[in-house]
Every structure is written in structure tokens, then in C-alpha cells.
Amino acid sequence: xxxxxxxxxxxxxxxxxxxxxxxxxxxxxxxxxxxxxxxxxxxxxxxxxxxxxxxxxxxxxxxxxxxxxxxxxxxxxxxxxxxxxxxxxxxxxxxxxxxxxxxxxxxxxxxxxxxxxxxxxxxxxxxxxxxxxxxxxxxxxxxxxxxxxxxxxxxxxxxxxxxxxxxxxxxxxxxxxxxxxxxxxxxxxxxxxxxxxxxxxxxxxxxxxxxxxxxxxxxxxxxxxxxxxxxxxxxxxxxxxxxxxxxxxxxxxxxxxxxxxxxxxxxxxxxxxxxxxxxxxxxxxxxxxxxxxxxxxxxxxxxxxxxxxxxxxxxxxxxxxxxxxxxxxxxxxxxxxxxxxxxxxxxxxxxxxxxxxxxxxxxxxxxxxxxxxxxxxxxxxxxxxxxxxxx
Length: 391
Prior knowledge:
Layout: E1 7-8, H1 20-36, E2 48-50, E3 54-60, E4 67-73, E5 76-81, E6 84-89, E7 97-103, E8 114-115, E9 119-123, E10 130-135, E11 143-149, E12 156-159, E13 164-167, E14 171-174, E15 182-186, E16 196-203, E17 206-211, E18 213-218, E19 227-233, E20 240-244, H2 246-249, E21 253-258, E22 273-277, H3 281-284, E23 286-293, E24 317-319, E25 327-332, E26 338-343, E27 349-357, E28 362-367, E29 372-377, E30 381-387
């Protein structure tokens, strides 16, 4: 099935500050039920609306508060909630089994948790601030082993096997003794809150930042003082929220997400899913924006909600395991649910499928296998989807 694409080639203006999701989630959760599903838009008891190449399999309830993000490593899924960390065995992707749910001492761990399967990183930049280091080697009894307070990084990523951690606001933490984390450097001195929201290790020791000025950092020789290798700058200085560079930074395309939370009506300035040209970075020391995709308002029955409580914005996404210079991407869009996007060989984006949950708001989508997608929904829990069409 191929649906008409809704990609736009002209960049729009995107702004706003994050942390908004965490700070505003309490306020807007009450509004969500009103905006999320118009009365009579879907049949009573409906699970949602889907294109004919996506099959809803089941919903796994999440009873540990609102799920805010996850990480899939091997046979396990690590889900951070508003009050607890939950670990699932996903060796049978259609029947995930929860192994543990463990409370932590703060609320709303930030979305992009990271782990190497042994230690796990949680960030709390809302109240006290800090990096929380957990031992997750025993999936049934994870334990917090250290806190490095005072950091305001929105998220942290594991670097070089989780021996180091890079924060979204520039913090570089030495984790060679994970029980005694040490602040060791700063990859972005003077960065202002609201300019950096995530970092991704795209290959061992190579880190791409989700900041208004996208940076490729090389930490291979000296993790405490990484080298700047390339930059990507949008014409309008929009908020950049997350990214992926498939095939360990060998793909032609850098995939990027922008966020504009709390925008209930869709327009050309909302947070977009973007493709960037990464084929010439060694020569030009830069990435160049190619194309972008945004969701639209609709009637629910057409796969698009009329309003969106948390915003007509792209959220956490995941390229297909077989993505190679183009391919499929599963991406979350809050009340627009999970969108299946196709990136062609030129980097142009089109929508080729969707799952719009009934009464839900999807914050992240992950490929668990080459046909099974988990949609992490802050209202419903985990929607298990099967993609029945191939690129």
C-alpha cells in the first residue's frame, strides 16, 4: 500500500523548549481525553484506525505511571515511566513479559533512556537535576547505584560501551567506575537550556547531537575532549530533538526529528521528521537538509485526529533494521499515533502507513523485529503492531 506523501521541501520555523513535555504532562493529561478522540469518531470499543498494511495485535497495559520512553537491547525492553522503571522480556515479540517494575525517587524520567544491558542511564532535569545510574544486569531486580546531581541534561547516551555518558546539554561523564560517576568535560560550553535535547552514539565513539546546531563529535581518542567533525544547521534555527544515522554512520542519510510540543492544530511550522544529506560530510564537514514530513489534521476515520493535546509534532522514531540509503521508518506523533514513513533513494519522504490509537498519545515507536513495532503510548501502554507490507 502506498499512501500520498505529505512531505514538504520548504523548511518551516520550529521552536519551543522541551522539558515542556515533563513539566506540562500533568497539566495536559486531563485535556487529553477530550482532544484525543472526538465523540462518535470511532466505534465503541475500537482500538484505533490503521492503514491496511498495519495490524494491531494487542495492547500491553502499563501500570507504572505514564511511560515516557524506552530502549530495546537484545531480548529486553527497558521502559522509563513517570514513577518507575520497567523491564520486559521481548524474546517473543508478540507476548512481552514484564520482569520487573522498580520505583525511583523522582518523577518523569526523560524519554531517551540508554543502556548496554548492564548499566542504564536515566536523566532528571525537571526538579533537582541529575544523572541516575542503574545496575540492570539482573532484569528482575534492577538497582540504582549512583546519582550525579546538579546536571540539567535532558537525556544521556552511552558512549564507548557505557564507559562514558554524553548529556544533551554538553555534560561528559566518566562512567568507567559506574558506581562513582565523575563529571569530566563539556562538549558545548555555554549551551543554553532549550538548545540541546538528546545525543546519539551513531558508531563507537561517534556522537551526533540533537541541538539547534547539530554536531558530529569524535570521542574515540579522548572522550573527555571530543573533536568536532561536522555541523548541520537549519535555515530557521529550529528545535532539534533526536536523530539516527543508520548503519553505524555509513548511510547516506542522517535522520532527524524536530519537536514543537503543545500545538493542537497542525501547520507548516510543526515539528517535522527530516532527512539530511550525510554523504559528503568528510569533505564538506557539514550535513544538509533534504526533505521533511509533517502530520495534518483530519477526521479520525481518515487516520488523522482533528486536534492534538500534546502537539502536531514528531516524536521518537526508529529506522527499520534493513534501512540502507533509504527504507522504512516507524515514528511517533502523539495523538497522530505511529506513522510508517518511506525514505526513497533521494532522501524524499512519504507516508506509507499509520496506526491511530483510540484515546491514546504515542511518544515513541520501535522496531522489535523487521515486522513488529512497539508503540509506547503515554495513555494506553504498549501497542504491539505488525507491519504486513514490505518496502
